[in-house]
Design a protein that fits this description.
It is a single chain. By secondary structure, the protein is mostly helical. It starts with 7 loop residues before the first helix and ends in a 5-residue tail after the last helix.
Length: about 300
């Protein structure tokens, strides 16, 4: 009698000897339900040749319970891995994952990649991590990214960093954010910069902040700028601040506006000055006001001038 005639219940009771005697033709004759019924002891007895006979349709039947029991020397082929669900991929052991070359790893879908535990994702080496496509990275959850170490995060390329969503970026801990290299940060788009949480923006060091281009800092929102402490604001270079839009300058606190040096103040255009509110001028000292040129003073509105202190 052909093994394909056996029920799932019967297949689950087969001995190791019986399983080892199956040919690739026998394996190929089983349906996905029958494949999923093979007990874990028998799974551990399957050879690479036998596993290689499992089609992608059959691979869908493999259970999360079975997958960790395959011999570590067994490497699923790309067609099998391509149909793995998140639950199936999440059942792969660290050893099984580390045995995957970049081609095999690249066959996992974003959903499958999203099923990996933080510990298993962490087991991937830098070559494996850097081989992941933008489409695959979209599957990474906030929990996965939040569970990565600074070493793990350091393995992403600048291109990959630039492909992360706002939710993914802000899932990084402040420690991880502070550990990003300036090369990695160069991959951020202005939109991503504008989506950084206040905590992660504040966590960036002066070196990191200073490495951002004016194109990137142009993405900073009014809310982000309003939330900057004087220390955080001090991390921005004169070139970066001088390139702020009128809306960005208008979001500065009086303290941060006061902290601008004369070089920056005197580069501000009439358009930029137009973004400053009267309330911002109220916090300026006589020394601060003295940094404006006569031309700039002449460009201030009556409301702005009215905001100046009389002392």
């Amino acid at each position: 009698m052909s093994i394909s005639m056996l029920s799932a219940a019967q297949i689950s009771t087969l001995s190791v000897t019986a399983i080892q005697s199956l040919t690739t033709t026998d394996i190929a004759s089983l349906n996905a339900t029958q494949i999923g019924a093979i007990n874990t002891t028998d799974i551990a007895a399957l050879t690479s040749t036998q596993v290689g006979a499992i089609t992608s349709a059959q691979a869908k039947g493999l259970t999360a319970t079975q997958i960790p029991f395959f011999q570590s020397s067994v490497i699923f082929d790309t067609t099998q891995l391509a149909v793995f669900s998140g639950a199936q991929a999440g059942a792969l052991t660290s050893t099984q994952l580390s045995n995957l070359d970049t081609t095999h790893l690249g066959s996992l879908s974003s959903a499958a990649l999203g099923g990996l535990t933080s510990a298993n994702f962490s087991s991937l080496d830098s070559t494996q991590v850097q081989s992941l496509s933008g489409a695959q990275l979209k599957g990474l959850s906030a929990n996965q990214l939040g569970g990565l170490s600074t070493t793990d995060v350091g393995e992403f390329t600048s291109t990959q960093i630039g492909q992360l969503s706002a939710t993914q970026l802000n899932a990084l801990t402040t420690t991880d954010a502070a550990a990003l290299t300036t090369t990695q940060l160069s991959g951020l788009t202005s939109t991503q910069v504008g989506q950084l949480s206040s905590a992660n923006l504040s966590a960036l060091t002066s070196t990191q902040v200073g490495s951002l281009s004016t194109t990137q800092t142009a993405g900073l929102t009014a809310n982000q700028i309003k939330g900057l402490s004087t220390t955080d604001f001090g991390d921005f270079s004169t070139t970066q601040v001088a390139a702020f839009s009128s809306a960005q300058l208008g979001a500065l606190s009086s303290d941060n506006l006061s902290s601008l040096n004369s070089t920056v103040v005197q580069t501000l255009s009439s358009t930029q000055l137009g973004g400053l509110a009267a309330t911002q001028f109220k916090g300026l000292s006589a020394a601060d006001v003295g940094e404006f040129t006569s031309t700039q003073i002449g460009q201030l509105t009556s409301a702005q001038l009215g905001g100046l202190s009389t002392t």
